[in-house]
């Protein structure tokens, strides 16, 4: 890895938590220089502008979430158990490498809606990728006879994501992790009812 690539990676790793906590609008260049120990010129010598840093920070944060979920899913053998890994992950975020500040998809989708088209597009791509992955797991389960043939994979995937993200949002809004945890049995029931 070239020095410039290492510097870019360093900037992203140090600023990603700030963007996820404070959001795009709330993150200042002073926040970025303080987190990295670099000057404004050094940051903007590696990134064209704050937008470029924010996009890279979102990708970094979302990749952490995807990796966390994938690691847990890969420990399971059946498709049903792979979906139930979602419950395990989102029930106990402290035991996993979940980004500081909450779900980057939720945070970015809410903030970028109508105000930052590039971030909105990144969030949309992340959502679509997550949806596609869950749909694939459900379709695999249907094909293997684990789930009923009548299961609508896309509608079920949307429901699972909505329950998880809704629990995260309410928990973040109220500052009460119990709300997120309280939603997880509904996620589990939705999955178990597919058989």
TrEMBL record:
Entry keywords, A to Z: DNA-binding, Transcription, Transcription regulation
Source superkingdom: Bacteria
Entry's Gene Ontology molecular function annotations: DNA binding
Domain HTH tetR-type: 5-65
Extent of the signal sequence: none
PANTHER family: HTH-TYPE TRANSCRIPTIONAL REGULATOR LMRA, TRANSCRIPTIONAL REGULATORY PROTEIN
Protein name: Transcriptional regulator
UniProt source species: Sinorhizobium glycinis
